[in-house]
Amino acid sequence: MSQFEKIAEGKALVFVPKEKKVSKKLPVFYNPAMKLNRDVSVLLLNSLDKKDMQIALPLAGTGIRGARLFLELKKGKIKSLNINDYSENAARIIRQNLKLNKIKTKKITITRKDANMFLLESSGFDYIDIDPFGTPNYFLDSAVKRLARDGILAVTATDTSALAGTFPSACERKYWAAPLRNELKHEIGLRILIRKVQLIAAQFEKALTPIYCYSDQHYMRAFFYCEKGKHRADEIIEQHGYYENAGPMWLGRLWDRKLASAIAKQSDERILRIIAEEAGVNTVGFHDIHLMCKKNKISRIPKTKDIMKEIREKGYGVSETHFSPSGLRSDIPQKDLLKLLSKAF
Ligand SMILES: C[S@@+](CC[C@H](N)C(=O)[O-])C[C@H]1O[C@@H](n2cnc3c(N)ncnc32)[C@H](O)[C@@H]1O
């Protein structure tokens, strides 16, 4: 085990390959930058009123997410935990990691199949976590086919260069939409990703409503709640459309407000607190205060808390946004915000 080191994340200990740089070429990944990604899975499943879940991790890597779900989800949540990865190394490391955490249970199965085969050969799951390196596209069909009614689908995309508009043709090809290359690029990219997943599900008469999502560092992440039926699937598609020249994309809500608050309450991560606030303001896009000041030659940029107070006093909703440190999410019209920014605070 000399090429491995032992680390702690959440309540789990894991053996991880001693590689300094995370890359697709590694046989098995442990990416410390994805700790938040795994934290949110735990927090979200603990916040939902769901018990006896059949959980699937088709692309499990080192198995750290599996170990954490087993150790950190509340009692009664897990009926079965199905950990899969096609790499031979992964299956071995997953076993070692479960042993390291003294996890011995009939509830867990470890398989070494192609993720699509693993999903399609199953009878279905209440939670499926698609956490690939790059685009989730390859796995979406089988994931939505095997997602149960009232089930939760989690999707990670790390190909942000396509979604956030560095390579517009890649976004068209992979996500069937035009991205936006400005300060809103991450929110628009996330909305484009959401629509793509929803379209795949709609083919099978499944309606996927986003309940929680975010963009962080090099990836985007979305959680969906699944309902079955043509009518609901059509209602989802009706909420697709354009923002400026970008899209089509999901124009509906990004968060379930109660869920976002419940998640934030269980953690002291700043990003989760900001998301809980922005879940209360339903807009597509946000105002970039620094940029507005620059464009309009306003030399003294007012303090965020002062502008927020003024916006509230005018009767509009407002919050910070996790998409940008200089952004404010608000339903105030741009011209009214500009008037506020122009006056001396
Ligand atoms: C980003 S890593 C997963 C990280 C893991 N979910 C975590 O939270 O630490 C992606 C994993 O998917 C596996 N993988 C890639 N393509 C696959 C496929 N078609 N079927 C099964 N596993 C696959 C790789 O071996 C790799 O371990």
Overall structural class, as computed from helix and strand content, comes to alpha/beta
* Quaternary structure of the protein: single chain
Largest sheet descriptor = 7 strands, mixed
End-to-end separation in angstroms reads 61 Å
Number of strands: 14
Highest-level CATH class of the largest domain: Alpha Beta
Q: Numbering strands along the chain, what is their spatial order in the largest sheet?
A: 5-4-3-6-7-9-8
Report the bound ligands by name, code or SMILES: S-adenosylmethionine
Shape: globular
Q: What percentage of the residues does DSSP assign to strands (E)?
A: 25-35%
CATH architecture of the largest domain: 3-Layer(aba) Sandwich
Amount of helix:
25-40%
Q: Segments where pLDDT lies below 50 for 5+ residues? A: none
Short description:
39% of the residues lie in helices and 26% in strands.
List keywords for this structure.
single chain; alpha/beta; Rossmann fold; Phenylalanyl-tRNA Synthetase, Chain B, domain 1; 2 domains; 14 helices; 39% helix
Characterization of this structure:
By secondary structure, this protein is of the alpha/beta class. It folds into 2 domains: 266 residues, Vaccinia Virus protein VP39 (Rossmann fold), CATH 3.40.50; 58 residues, N2,N2-dimethylguanosine tRNA methyltransferase, C-terminal domain (Phenylalanyl-tRNA Synthetase, Chain B, domain 1, 2-Layer Sandwich). It is 39% helix and 26% strand. The strands form 4 sheets. A 7-stranded mixed β-sheet has the order 5-4-3-6-7-9-8, sandwiched between helices. Helix 8 packs antiparallel against helix 9 and helix 10 runs antiparallel to helix 11. The model has no long low-confidence stretch (mean pLDDT 95).
